[in-house]
What we know:
By secondary structure, the chain is α/β, with parallel strands linked by helices. The protein has helices at residues 27-40, 49-55, 60-67, 73-91, 104-113, 126-135, 158-167, 181-190, 204-210, 222-230; strands at 14-17, 117-121, 144-146, 174-178, 193-197, 214-216.
Amino acid sequence: PRGNALTDSTPLYFAVFDCDGTLVDSAHSIIEAMSMAWAAEGLGAPPSSHDVRSIVGLQLVEAIGRLHPEGDTPDHERLAGHYKDAFLNIRNRPDHDEPLYEGTREVIEVLDRAGILLGVATGKSRRGLEATLESHGLIDHFVSLKTSDDGPGKPNPTILLDAMRELGVEPENTVMIGDTVFDISMAANAKVTAIGVDWGYHEVSELKSAGAETILQSFHQLEGSLRTIWGKL
């Protein structure tokens, strides 16, 4: 990522994105890796795709704990290890594809040119996040990357608050864009505006109930939403 923005004395505006389900569609890989983890552990039927989608965004061990509540912490940690191995194998396949959602690249480039600071706050590992962003040629657009390696998982606001503090950005000049209630709740806990998207893994009604200020039906609507929230862009 680029250098620290604290050298700039002008007001700073910060747009923070979730990754899976917001920037990239990785559901098929996540679901397959979870099924492979269940098989590696010798468990029965794997979680349904609906149940797996429901936990995307949480840190991995916590997410697996919700999918396998009858297990204990060592069980969940073993499953997490199997999942990581499976996901790495899936990512290394020649035909592996986690496509960007329509409009993602164009909007990221527009916001970057406009001087908006861009960040990611995700439940993915740093290795996983960097691999995803690098594969799409987007990593250089982001000044802040916060992952499961950097603090407690969503909806705990620590990683978002840390990103804001490191860049010197005020809560009123920060937005969080995400597809799950964990993203929206993290934003609320950090006292920043939350923007939901309707193309991800949680229902729009859930995002609204969690406190989303607005719901995007297209990434191209983000620019207008930011103008409304900040009065600039």
